[in-house]
Amino acid sequence: MKTRVIQDVQELDRDASALDGRSEASQHSPRSIEKEQTMATVAVPAPSAVDVPFRGPVVSAENLRRRYGEGDTAVDALRGVSLDVAQGALTAVMGPSGSGKSTLMHILAGLDKATAGEVTLAGTAISGLNDNELTKLRRRHIGFIFQFFNLLPMLNAEENVVLPLTIAGEKPDKAWIDELLKSVGLDDRRSHRPSELSGGQQQRVAIGRALVSRPTIVFADEPTGNLDSKTSEEILGLMRHSVDAYGQTTVMVTHDPRAAAIADRILFLADGLIVRDLGRSDAHAVLGVMEELAQ
Hints:
The chain is an alpha/beta fold. The chain is about 40% helix and about 20% strand. It contains twelve helices and ten strands. The strands form two sheets. Strands 6-7-8-3-9-10 form a six-stranded mixed sheet, with helices on both faces. The longest helix is centred in the last third of the chain and has 18 residues, at about 230-245. It is globular.
C-alpha cells in the first residue's frame, strides 16, 4: 500500500515538474495551480540537518504585484500588497470576488509567482528559488487546507492524516497522533475511508493532515466553502483551537463574515490592494466593512 501511495505522489510530482519551461502565463494557470495544490496537500516533511527557531514575522510580503496576460487584456490581480503575518495568530483575508485574495495566498505559499515584489517565508526570500527549492520549503514549513479535501480514497482517515509522515519514512508519534485525531473529532472514525465520511468529517481529516507535521504556517483557502452552516461552525472551531492550543500560525482566505470573525486580524482586499486592516471583530462588523467596500 505504501509503495502504491508513493508512486501516486511521484506521478503528481512529475506532473508539477513538467510545468518547468512553459511560459509564465501557462505555468501559473488555474489548472497548474490546482496541480500544485494537490501536491501540496500530500507533501512530505523535508529532512533538515539544523532547524534554527526563526524570530520575526512568519511570512512577509513587500509590494507584491501580479499581472496576468499582456497588453490590453492584462489583468492586475495584485497592485502593490505589503504585509507581515505574526506568529501564533490567525489572519483572515477577505474581499469580493476578483479582489486578489486567493492570488495573494497562492503567492505567499509559493504556489504562484509574483510579477514583482518579494515574499519572505520563515526568513527565506522565495522569489529566487527554483521549483525544487520551493517544494522543499513548502514541505518543511507549510500545511494546506483547501475547499476540496484531496483525500486518497484507498486510505482510511488515520492513514490520510499521517500520510506526509508515512511517505517521508518517519514513524508517527502515537501520543501526538492520538491527541490530534481526538482534537479534530476523528477518534471514532480513524478506520473509515473518505467514502464513508461526511463532507465535514473529510475536512477534519484534511485539517489533521495539515497539522500532523507541526508546520510553521497553515494556509486555508475557503475551508468551509463546501460545507453547511452547522458543519462550517464546527470546522472553524477546530481551526481556532489549533491556534489557541498549539500556537499554529494560520492564514485563511474566506468570503464568509462568520469565518473571519474567528480571526485575530482581518485584511480586506479590493482591486488588488489591502484597503482595511481590522483587529478581532464580530461577524456584524465584518459584514459592515464588506458592504461598504461593495458600494
